[in-house]
From TrEMBL:
One of its GO terms (molecular function) is aminopeptidase activity. Belongs to the peptidase S58 family. This is Peptidase. Gene3D superfamilies: L-amino peptidase D-ALA esterase/amidase (3.60.70.12). It holds the Pfam family Peptidase_S58. It comes from Brevibacillus parabrevis. InterPro entries: ArgJ-like_dom_sf, Peptidase_S58_DmpA. SUPFAM superfamilies: DmpA/ArgJ-like (SSF56266).
Length: 319
């Protein structure tokens, strides 16, 4: 077992990034069409193909999911994933070829690196082609390449974040995994101890509590276009589309335990939930454990990040 989302049977992950421009995308490829749900809690989301995941709508499975930097521009990366899958003959058979179903979500990383370079169709294709079942790379890779946290004291006092993954395997065969790109306006903490791992820096270059900083202002100090945490939780459970949506809702608890503040007016926090359908499992169990695994993935994302774009990282303070 790798301790990452690829421990879920049938799940592969690939990344592509521009390390100079500090942006990238990550693709979750599925060996077989799988049930998927989504839950958007942030009020400024950038998403693609999420309406079809409503349990009332026709299409019940997806073939891949794309997480990307680049703000709304980054949604183009999903087109490259579709191209890759079409070439493999993978997609919904519509009688005139196949249409790959690739939901996507983006985060805002234009303030880091070169804002003129964004994940595009070519980068999405590269990420899909690179997908493997090997342990997921973490930190400054894929959708986490330009991710940052702690922006309430200005971007110059923010910290670098990244991409993280985690998994949990139960004796009965249930496997749950998570992949997350952490790009929060607030701070990230270790839920078991309350330690702030990364957040806004003060004039002494000490990490501050974001909520305490908010209380010092008579108005909301959250700068637009600086936020959004996007994630995928996956399991080998048999779930309906409605149950997968419920798991996505419950998984947001993992973000609430680790990121403060979360789900603000300037966030686009989005979680996809995939179920590959191999074993019976209670939806409440899958949802509760998905929150735990996602919280662990958030912590891993911050701890694996390296300083970049002039921003220090967790590793800068913990040699």
């Amino acid at each position: 077992m790798t301790g990452t989302i690829v421990d879920v049977p049938g799940v592969k992950v690939g990344h592509a990034q521009n390390e100079e421009a500090l942006t990238g995308c990550s693709v979750i490829l599925l060996d077989k069409p799988s049930v998927c749900g989504v839950d958007v809690r942030g009020s400024a989301p950038g998403t693609r193909e999420t309406d079809l995941l409503d349990p009332l709508n026709l299409v019940s499975v997806v073939h891949a999911i794309c997480l990307s930097g680049g703000s709304a521009y980054g949604l183009d990366a999903a087109t490259g994933v579709m191209q890759y899958l079409e070439e493999k003959g993978v997609g919904l058979d519509v009688g005139y070829g196949v249409v790959p179903i690739v939901p996507a979500a983006v985060l805002f990383d234009l303030a880091v690196g070169d804002h003129r370079v964004r994940p595009d169709r070519h980068m999405g294709y590269q990420a899909a082609a690179a997908a493997t079942s090997e342990a997921v790379s973490e930190g400054n890779v894929g959708a986490g390449t330009g991710a940052s946290v702690g922006k309430l004291n200005g971007f110059a006092n923010a910290m670098k974040s990244g991409l993280g993954s985690a998994s949990l395997s139960l004796p009965n065969g249930l496997v749950i995994g998570a992949l997350v790109a952490v790009n929060a306006v607030g701070h990230v903490m270790e839920p078991k101890t309350g330690e702030i791992l990364a957040g806004p820096l003060d004039e002494h270059r000490e990490i501050r509590d974001s909520v305490d900083m908010m209380l010092q202002h008579a108005f909301s100090p959250i700068p637009p276009g600086t936020n959004t945490t996007i994630a995928v939780v996956a399991s080998n459970a048999k779930l309906t589309k409605a149950e997968a949506q419920k798991v996505a809702q419950m998984a947001h608890d993992g973000l609430a335990r680790t990121i403060r503040p979360i789900h603000t007016m300037y966030d686009g926090d989005t979680i996809f939930s995939v179920a590959t359908g191999e074993m019976e499992a209670a939806v409440d169990v899958v949802g509760a454990l998905s929150a735990d695994v996602l919280a662990a993935a958030v912590v891993n994302a911050v701890k694996a990040a390296k300083e970049a774009g002039g921003l220090p990282a967790y590793s800068s303070f913990h040699n």
